[in-house]
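TICKET: design request
STATUS: open
ATTACHED STRUCTURE:
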């Protein structure tokens, strides 16, 4: 029982402790790593990328409104989006490769 008390950090003065109790008392940590970690401030989560550059909720709503409006216009006109743009002018390779004569 005394050894258990020494391991849990008993309040006896060091002079009254037996050599075994002193050794056990040295092994006891005053603060465990888990307790210290629990007291530390947690890292804040980054904002989602959809609202990263927007100041407040009203800006988020207005940005969503503009997004839907622009998307609706594209859908009505049947136009492709930015990522689907292609170079429409294709030139035949057989016409443009090699040496070009005077008449071309």
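STATUS: resolved
RESOLUTION: sequence designed for all positions
ATTACHED SEQUENCE:
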């Amino acid at each position: 029982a005394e050894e258990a008390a020494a391991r849990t950090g008993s309040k006896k003065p060091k002079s009254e402790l037996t050599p075994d109790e002193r050794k056990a008392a040295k092994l006891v940590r005053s603060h465990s790593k888990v307790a210290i970690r629990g007291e530390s401030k947690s890292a804040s989560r980054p904002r989602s990328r959809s609202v990263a550059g927007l100041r407040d909720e009203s800006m988020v709503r207005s940005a969503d409104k503009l997004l839907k409006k622009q998307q609706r216009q594209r859908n009505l006109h049947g136009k492709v989006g930015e990522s689907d743009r292609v170079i429409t002018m294709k030139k035949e390779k057989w016409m443009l490769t090699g040496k070009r004569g005077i008449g071309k």
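CLOSING REMARK: The two ends are 106 Å apart (CA to CA). The chain has five helices and no strands.
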